[in-house]
Amino acid sequence: MVDNDIATNRMRGNKSYARRIGRSLTTYQRQLADTVLSELDALYHLNNCKTFGKLALEIGFGNGSNLLKLAQTHKDVTFIGCEPFINGVAKLLKQIVEEGIKNIRIHADDIKILLAKIKRKKIFEDIYILFPDPWPKKRHDKRRLITQEFIELLISFLKDNGQISVATDDKGYASWIKKELGKSESSVTVEYKLVENSTIACGESSIICGKFFMTKYAKRGISNGQDIHVFFIRKLRCSD
C-alpha cells in the first residue's frame, strides 16, 4: 500500500529537497495510489516497451495541471511526469481516471532516480521544468535543481533537436540559470524570453510562449507582480 509513511520515507538518500507530503491522503486517493499508480509506472514503460512514439518529460509537475493539458492537446505524445510530492500525484491520478487520459505515465519519486535507471538515452523530444523552487537564500544554493551538471544530464536524454523548457518567476533564479547555462559544453542553443507581467493572461488554458500552460505557481507569481523568465535549450546534435 502507498501510504503516508511510505510517501515520506521512500526518498531517503537522494539529493532532492522537494517536500514529499502535505495533507494526509483521502481514502480515495490511497485507493488510486494502490491500484492505478503501478499501472502507470514510467520506468516500466520506458524500459520495457520495445517501441514507442514521441516522448516528453515534465520534471516536478506539481498538481499536474500543465501535464494534463499537454496530454489532452497532444494525444500522439506519451508524457512522463515526475513528482515526489505524493499529494500532487494523487490529484493527477484522480484527473487521469475521471477524464480517461491514456498518454501519461508517472514516476512518483526523484527525477535523478528515474534517469539513473532508464536504459536508453536520446529518447525525449521535450523536457519541461516549470517554476522549480528558487531556494532564494544564499546558503541554499546547493538545493537548486538547475545546475550545469543537471542540464548536461538532461541533454543526454534529449533526441537531436529536442528541447528543454525552463520557466521561473524569480529574477535571482533566472540570473543563476543564465550563469549555469553559460557553462554548458554541449552543442545547444539557448533562447531567453522575458514575459512581462502586464502581458500575461491568467486563464486556466492560457499558453505561455506557445509551449506550456498556466500552472499554480505561475499564477502565484503573476498575482504578486512578477515577470516570467523562460529559457529554451535546444540540442543541435549528439551531446552525450
Structure explained in plain terms:
The chain is of the alpha/beta class. The protein has a single domain, classed as 3-Layer(aba) Sandwich (Rossmann fold). Helices cover 34% and strands 22% of the residues. It has nine helices and nine strands. The chain has helices at 4-9, 27-35, 42-48, 65-73, 86-99, 111-117, 148-156, 171-182, 216-223; strands at residues 54-59, 77-82, 104-107, 124-130, 158-168, 188-195, 207-208, 212-213, 228-235. A seven-stranded mixed sheet has the order 3-2-1-4-5-9-6, with helices on both faces. The protein has a two-stranded antiparallel sheet with strand order 7-8. Helix 2 (27-35) packs across helix 5. The longest helix is centred in the middle third of the chain and has 14 residues, at 86-99. The protein is globular and about 45 Å long. The N and C termini lie far apart (38 Å). Residues 1-14 have low confidence and may be disordered.
